[in-house]
Amino acid sequence: MFTEPELEMLAQADPARDVRLSQSESHALLRATLEAPGRTSISLPLAERWRNRAVRIGIGAAALGIVVPALAYGGNFLAQSGEFTPADGETGPISSEWINILAADFPDYAVTQWPDHIVLPGSYDQRTFARLVALHFQKVEVRNLDGANAQSVREGRPTAGPEVHEPSIGVPQLFETQARCVWSAEWLAAYDRDDQAARDRAAGVLAESATWTYTVMTDGGGVVAWYKDLAAAAAAGNRARLADEVAECPSMDEWRDARR
């Protein structure tokens, strides 16, 4: 008789005790664990409560000879909280995990979330760019912390204060936004050197970017229209409009190490 219902479920799932969970099954197990009453201390931060429980179950599973992929316990990153937003809630029609931006491995997690549909100029390395974007926005959040917690994040140690969470779908959406900034800057540089082919290339990607998955998904009204207008301005040669857009972006120097 198992004291942990999750272990009983795992042991019964496969007579050979070699449990391979799909992503949906992993999330179902994760939800069951989070919702199980009386198992954790509410005084602990959410991520710590989840991981303490996951470790206890994992040890028991190992003792039973059950093989459980790390994904079954919310993934391999401390940035993953194991807590999910409800579908049709803040993140729209899909459920999204809360991600701790201040976690030491947030940049490592973020790199794994790069959407295949995002196009970067050939002079950029995608993985380096993704990491730099994640580091930049982690630093932005660190600026809002008190001195001790800010130093903890810089040194890769846990913070004693509140965590800063972002729905996981916000990470690829962030990449879409910053890639669009890069293409706007590329358009400006091409305009200033009178390179029509490069201008057309940038304008084409900007037009396509208005249809990118997470931009559309997170449009609360007017976002897609704004980027369609930006693309139209690029096609029309409206330098002032593109310059205004780039002025709202992080400095392109933030991404210089991503250039090949």
Structural topology:
Elements (H helix, E strand, L loop, with lengths): L4 H9 L9 H13 L10 H18 L16 E6 L10 E5 L5 H6 L14 H17 L4 H8 L10 E3 L2 H23 L3 H14 L3 H5 L5 H14 L2 H9 L13
Antiparallel strand pairs: 1-2, 2-3
Helix pairs in contact: 7-8, 7-11, 8-10
Structure write-up:
The protein is mostly helical. It has eleven helices and three strands; from the N terminus they run H-H-H-E-E-H-H-H-E-H-H-H-H-H. A three-stranded antiparallel beta sheet has the order 1-2-3. 31% of the residues are buried. Residues 1-11 and 14-74 have low confidence and may be disordered.
Any descriptors?
3-stranded antiparallel beta sheet, disordered N terminus, 260 residues, mainly alpha, 11 helices
Beta-strand segment tally: 3
| Poorly predicted regions | 1-11, 14-74
| Major sheet | 3 strands, antiparallel
Query: Mean of the pLDDT scores?
Result: 75
Distance between the termini: 59 Å
Sheet with most strands: strand arrangement: 1-2-3
Short account of what is shown:
The chain contains 11 helices and 3 strands. With 260 residues, it is mainly α.
